[in-house]
């Protein structure tokens, strides 16, 4: 059966999942668009509930599972990317507590406090995955991991990463319990160069919001760290700063 109506209840449901964060969280499901992104979700054992496929666009191998075929016009209605590949999947949200993460002796984790922009979070996830970061913690998070823009900008890297959401107090307790070196990025005279930090030990680097940096909660909780720069500005875009830190961690571990 081909779905051709925008008024179809399943199409209405997908549209609402894309646009309404609260509905998505309440439903405990999320939307994945694109062949690579769906392949990664399946590869990392996310539970697929159903797929919407436009045969005129989709050129890949159909995944196992319940498939609804839709017309091009309907697909354009539920697709959130400008260029599309003809497949959208609906998956069950995974909710894993921070306590489930078991760090290695030399684990590096990135912590972002209150990150506000989905695109930034997606870019951060991409850098963390690319450079072998062991986990990403969003402390006091304002952004939904399963926001379509997070999935899109991370190119599906979300699915292969250890990702957790926790309040500041829980995050600090976890770091101290597991003997992490805590590196904060507060702007003051006590900060030392990132390149002097030892990432061959358990390390956690904390970044604040795009607008105002780390909150006062983290003052005095770790060793202040900065990325040395030669230009006239004194700050970087959040996702760029995280990428540089992730690369430095990988470089040290590669020896």
Automatic annotation (TrEMBL):
<feature type="domain" description="tRNA/rRNA methyltransferase SpoU type">
    <location>
        <begin position="108"/>
        <end position="247"/>
    </location>
</feature>
<comment type="similarity">
    <text>Belongs to the class IV-like SAM-binding methyltransferase superfamily. RNA methyltransferase TrmH family.</text>
</comment>
<dbReference type="InterPro" id="IPR051259">
    <property type="entry name" value="rRNA_Methyltransferase"/>
</dbReference>
<dbReference type="InterPro" id="IPR053888">
    <property type="entry name" value="MRM3-like_sub_bind"/>
</dbReference>
<keyword id="KW-0489">Methyltransferase</keyword>
<dbReference type="Pfam" id="PF00588">
    <property type="entry name" value="SpoU_methylase"/>
</dbReference>
<feature type="domain" description="MRM3-like substrate binding">
    <location>
        <begin position="8"/>
        <end position="89"/>
    </location>
</feature>
<dbReference type="GO" id="GO:0006396">
    <property type="term" value="P:RNA processing"/>
</dbReference>
<dbReference type="InterPro" id="IPR029028">
    <property type="entry name" value="Alpha/beta_knot_MTases"/>
</dbReference>
<dbReference type="GO" id="GO:0008173">
    <property type="term" value="F:RNA methyltransferase activity"/>
</dbReference>
<keyword id="KW-0808">Transferase</keyword>
<dbReference type="Pfam" id="PF22435">
    <property type="entry name" value="MRM3-like_sub_bind"/>
</dbReference>
<dbReference type="InterPro" id="IPR029026">
    <property type="entry name" value="tRNA_m1G_MTases_N"/>
</dbReference>
<protein>
    <submittedName>
        <fullName>RNA methyltransferase</fullName>
    </submittedName>
</protein>
<dbReference type="InterPro" id="IPR029064">
    <property type="entry name" value="Ribosomal_eL30-like_sf"/>
</dbReference>
<dbReference type="InterPro" id="IPR001537">
    <property type="entry name" value="SpoU_MeTrfase"/>
</dbReference>
<dbReference type="GO" id="GO:0003723">
    <property type="term" value="F:RNA binding"/>
</dbReference>
<dbReference type="GO" id="GO:0032259">
    <property type="term" value="P:methylation"/>
</dbReference>
């Amino acid at each position: 059966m081909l779905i051709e109506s925008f008024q179809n209840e399943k199409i209405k449901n997908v549209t609402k999942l894309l646009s309404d964060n609260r509905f998505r969280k309440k439903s405990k499901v999320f939307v994945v668009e694109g062949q690579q992104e769906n392949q990664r979700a399946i590869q990392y054992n996310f539970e697929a509930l159903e797929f919407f496929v436009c045969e005129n666009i989709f050129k890949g191998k159909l995944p196992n599972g319940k498939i609804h075929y839709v017309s091009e016009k309907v697909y354009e209605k539920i697709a959130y990317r400008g260029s599309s590949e003809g497949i959208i999947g609906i998956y069950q949200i995974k909710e894993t507590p921070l306590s489930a993460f078991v760090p290695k002796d030399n684990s590096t984790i990135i912590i972002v406090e209150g990150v506000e922009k989905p695109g930034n979070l997606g870019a951060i996830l991409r850098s963390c995955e690319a450079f072998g970061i062991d986990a990403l913690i969003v402390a006091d998070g304002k952004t939904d991991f399963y926001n379509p823009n997070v999935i899109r900008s991370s190119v599906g890297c979300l699915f292969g990463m250890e990702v957790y959401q926790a309040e500041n107090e829980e995050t600090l307790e976890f770091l101290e319990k597991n003997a992490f070196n805590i590196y904060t990025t507060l702007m003051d005279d006590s900060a030392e160069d990132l390149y002097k930090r030892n990432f061959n030990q358990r390390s956690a680097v904390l970044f604040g919001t795009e607008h105002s940096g780390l909150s006062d909660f983290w003052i005095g909780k770790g060793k202040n760290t900065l990325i040395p720069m030669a230009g006239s500005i004194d700050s970087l875009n959040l996702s760029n700063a995280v990428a540089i830190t992730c690369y430095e961690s990988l470089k040290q571990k590669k020896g």
